[in-house]
């Protein structure tokens, strides 16, 4: 174990991560007191397109020369696409088709199988696709999908809640895709934001599949840290973790300052490193 600034950083050895921290995380999962937050890296593991593919599609459809894209984010381009098309519907339809993978691919996905087996009571995801839901269906596991305030009110306590934090393809109004959508969420007062604050304050959180570059996620983490810092009870905050591979000392220092422990995987393959970590975690959850 070593420290970089205020961040606790743990690197995988040949047989796994530092036992004390994985055991602490496993204990929270075992006691149903942990939340999983799933990013794009998990969806890309089953062949979903990258954001670069989305940008190329929008640019081609709008017949934009390459030079006009310099310094333009995909959120700004999606905003322009919505203005030109009159709604997000056409872009959402294309994404829904491109972001679809076969049930066989999900069935064979090491990461999706491990996520289901870990049996988190609440899973948040910024992914629009339905692969998590399909994985639960393939395992015969019940779940509630949550995309809006109505879903929050109807959610059951006894089954896993899959919270689509940036929306779902079945509900255009729920999508956080274009620039205006992101700006609106910066207020951190949408129903799903309020739910996350309530869920997260008393639980351990594990973030996987993130490069941690999403400004909304970073603001969310900062606000959570700020809430505890201002409460006067920061020492009572449950531990939270981010799995990152490869390691990044800048991210580790900033996230560590916000009270997240950064777990780093070994090797050059981020997907394999995440799978190895989840397998180790599952072993510890099942240990008696």
UniProtKB/TrEMBL annotation:
Keywords: Membrane, Transmembrane, Transmembrane helix. The keyword Hydrolase does not apply. InterPro entries: DHS-like_NAD/FAD-binding_dom, Uncharacterised_Sir2-like. It comes from the Bacteria. The chain crosses the membrane at residues 34-54. This is SIR2 family protein. It comes from Devosia albogilva. The lineage of its organism: Bacteria, Pseudomonadati, Pseudomonadota, Alphaproteobacteria, Hyphomicrobiales.
């Amino acid at each position: 174990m070593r420290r970089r600034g205020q961040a606790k950083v743990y690197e995988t050895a040949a047989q796994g991560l530092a036992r004390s921290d994985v055991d602490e995380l496993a204990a929270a999962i075992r006691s149903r007191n942990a939340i999983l937050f799933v990013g794009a890296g998990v969806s890309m593991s089953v062949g979903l397109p990258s954001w670069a593919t989305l940008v190329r599609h929008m640019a081609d459809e709008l017949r934009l020369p390459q030079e006009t894209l310099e310094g333009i984010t995909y959120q700004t381009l999606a905003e322009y696409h919505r203005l030109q098309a009159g709604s997000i519907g056409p872009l959402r339809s294309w994404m829904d088709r491109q972001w679809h993978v076969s049930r066989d691919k999900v069935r064979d996905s090491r990461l999706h199988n491990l996520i289901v087996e870990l049996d988190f009571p609440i899973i948040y995801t910024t992914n629009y696709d339905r692969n998590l839901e399909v994985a639960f269906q393939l395992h015969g596991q019940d779940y509630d999908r949550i995309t809006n305030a109505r879903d929050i009110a109807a959610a059951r306590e006894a089954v896993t809640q899959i919270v689509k934090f940036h929306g779902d393809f079945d509900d255009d109004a729920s999508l956080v895709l274009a620039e205006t959508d992101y700006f609106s969420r910066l207020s951190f007062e949408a129903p799903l934001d309020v739910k996350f604050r309530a869920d997260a304050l008393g639980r351990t959180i594990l973030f996987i599949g993130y490069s941690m570059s999403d400004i909304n996620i970073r603001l969310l983490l900062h606000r959570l840290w700020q809430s505890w810092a201002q409460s006067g009870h920061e020492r009572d905050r449950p531990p939270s973790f981010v799995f990152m591979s490869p390691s990044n000392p800048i991210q580790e220092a900033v996230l560590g300052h916000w009270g997240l422990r950064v777990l780093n995987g070994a090797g050059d393959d981020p997907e394999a490193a995440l799978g190895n970590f989840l397998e180790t975690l599952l072993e510890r959850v099942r240990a008696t």
